[in-house]
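A quick aside before the break. I want you to see a complete sequence-to-structure record at least once, exactly as it would be stored in a machine-readable document. Don't worry about memorizing anything.
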Amino acid sequence: MGRDKGVITNTLFSTTGRALLRGGAGTFALAAALAATPALAQAQTQAPQADGQAAAAQDTGADEVVVTGTLFKGNDTISPVTTLTTQDLDTRGINTVQDALQQLSSNNGPSLTNSFTANGAFAGGASSISLRGLSTNSTLVLFDGLRAAYYPLADDGSRNFVDLNTIPDDIVERIEVLRDGASSSYGADAIAGVVNIITKKTFKGISARAEAGIAERGIAANQRLTLTAGIGDLNEKGFNAYVSGFYYRSDKVNNRDLPAPYNTADESSFGGPNGIFNGRNPDGSYTGFVLPYDFYVRPYSNVGYAGGVQNGGVAQGRYQKLTAAPCIGGSSTTLNAAELAANPAAPTGIICQNDFVRDYQVVSPQIERFGGSAKFTANIGSSSQAYLELNFQQTRSGYTGFPPTLRGNAPTGILFPQFSTSTAQSANLAPGSGVLALPVFVCAARVNCDTAADRRLNPNNPFAAQGLVARLTGRFQEPTYSETRNRVYRAAFGVNGTIFDDVNYRFDATAMHTDLRRLARGYVYIQNLLDVIGDGSYNFLNPAANSARINDYVRPDNITNASSDLYQAQLSFSRGFFHLPGGPIQVGVGGTVYYEAVNSPSQNPDNRGPTQRYFTLNAFGTVGSRTVFGGFYEVNAPVFDKLELNASGRYDTYSSGQSSFSPKFGFKAKPIRQVTIRGTYSEGFRIPAFAEANALPTTGYVTQVVTNIPANVRAQYGAACAVNATAGASCPQYLTQYSIGLTTLASPNLAPERSRSFTLGIVVEPIRNITLTVDYFNIEKTGVITAPSSAPAIAAYYAGQPIPAGYAVIADAPDVANPNALPRIAFVQSQLINANRQKAEGIDFGATGRFNVGPFKWTSNLQASLLLELSTTFPDGTTEQYVDTLGNFNLTAGSGTFRWRGYWTNTLETGPVALSGTVNYVSGYDLSAQDQGTGYRDGGLFPGYPGNGPRVSNYITIDMNATAKITDRFSFYVNVLNLTDALPPIDPVTYGAYLYNPVQAGNGIFGRQFRAGVKVNL
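That is the input. The structure line, written in tokens, reads:
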């Protein structure tokens, strides 16, 4: 899929083609594009879908198959649909449904990957996709056409979604992705499209699989086991029953397991700064003292000390290392006289260095999944069938994190102001805040120890004998650990068939419950830390000497349980009426009622006081429930043999007071046998998520780029720091390595988001076994729920102007090396509003071909998506463009929006052997983001390195799969993923992962991987 062949390039569909699409000649432009680019493809198109569905029907004994997006059996939907079968996944070497969905060409922007959940994501342990880049909450995920329970935690603390890790991979028959608005069929959230997970209807015999894989570097080991057994035949015995179980495990991968430069904070190998705390640049220069992870203390006069913190006092010397133990990071430096003069707070002795990337950063969590399913299907008379399906699944995801801090800001307050041990008391902070300090005296009461009868000199304070307080900084040595355990219980029942000879009916009901257990281990409980400082019971001089009891007191386990529920019943009828020249008019009507609820309490509440909580753990949480009633219809009119019209609509009303009607209209025309033209227009809506309407204050941390700080502010940290070209290497790490906490407040008065979308496509079958498709899409959302841009508040703070109404800005503690400079920003707070308009526009391309070449059967599928526009327009009329940049930066964790994404799979079969190869392509992008204050594609976030300039390169990988059918019942296969061992291009700006884009890279970051397995069918 190289540029030299013109298959996927950033120049295809230039401005001229785009203008034609937007004008009245859209169909001609599509046809011209198809003629110009016959190789561009969508691996699953309408004709191949029909073939695949017919095969599935024969295997399962079903008479007809219902396609996603229509009420009518056996009908192809007018909307574009991508179908992925389990055979497709095997051919490409993909071993989980969630991984297959992450690799969809239509998935873009703010998707949630398993790897990002190990890097601070709110919805830890979960995975979701974002069709068209419109975020996770604009893609509806269904199980067999029915809704599923939300994951109890929300993406970014505000967007509810269905976790793809809850999909029972072992019983999936196919996945249908409706790439069009579908609120007229399914109601809320189907703005960008629908993912419908369709499970096996029947199974007879025994099928088993055993598989294991590992990367060439000895990392990312994974194993999979499945077993399915079934009896009965619907046609012969009138019933079928099967049970199935699976086990899946993948190992945690740390950054230190990767090759350079992804395994160290030292970026000097490609022209960047040495990001190791207190590290030196390649020329030996030192950029400024940063407080290490080791315990350090600094003497202050005994003024203003109370309750473990100090407000007041004057420094009486420099910092010094508190313990005699080796540095946590294993390395250190010392300063010369000139460097000491430039850093008045820095120690004269050793200064510990910390490579936080090497020692603590995680690429992907450890994941363990297992589950079981059972399904019973039986004929009822000669015209009806009933089924009962039961599913259970558990997913456990865990990873280690950074060592816990003891000097910092508590999370955003809920009932009380925020508490801090890093900065002096201010109006924005809870009473009792101040800079963490070890007192001169300790006593049993922990307060007023200077005059207590049982007072004694503080054994942890090396300056106690001099009557000085010791301001304390550092982290505990052991890393934190976070784990989610998600248990999903689901039952579904249904009956369908024909009554009155010609009326088709279908009734389905489902109940789904999710239990989520969150474990946070090793985090500091603030009040308990202040307690042991006050009574001297914790040994800071020799932390290894502390008992398990005292360690557990300071850092107690936090276990928080959350849950979600979904109960739904749905009934529909359809039948044919009078005949038109093209066939009978079909009419379908139906109704549904469902109840959904989320109970996700805060993991870190402050209901007992501002210090009765943990550092670091976010306070977000939400509780809510609602009942929804919906009625829907669909009419399909084959006006002529060559023209089919379709209209559908749905009305939904919510117990929370909202309601919406969603219409949809479509057509399909076949002017000649080889060509089909199709198009749709639809309106939809997204209901405010529980986390948007009812959530506690939610803080997300956005990594900052130093050049976004105004030069006049940076000048306070040194002349070279003020120059953009040298800021990365010359500014102190206080500015180059930090994040701003963006705190959003929920609003119960939010209105639903509204959408309008249309598609226009063409399907060409020039000869037998070749199908080419092109589909244009245009989606616009209004009243988009969002937090106001933080840019005005940030700009006002740095300019020394009043903070605009509706915002609050909280400054961080000053830099110890530059105490008189304007401090960086710690938090910006604002409330969610309905304000913006968002637009997504692009083109999907598709081609499939099947050829017999001598003794070989060659199958070729290619899929690609071109995103022409993804933008947000604000109330003042300004517009931010995101395509081909890192925008929407905050929403995507700096992963950005790709212009092109696609893959091309080719398979050669001969006898019992099949060899497949897949080329995967994700386009590069410009290091800019308009929501971060840059221009569009101006390289405004480029920090001056690496040397290839302000653009991240395209990323191409090749996957191979070989399968040998040893006997009719036994087959063996081998996958080689990322055959060329291509590592992703360096991105020094994104913060979803370190130095690479996790959405662009996927599993390619592991390098070349091998996997082998056996399948048995009895």
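Two observations worth writing down. Confidence is low (pLDDT under 50) at residues 1-64. The chain has 17 helices and 46 strands. We'll return to this after the break.
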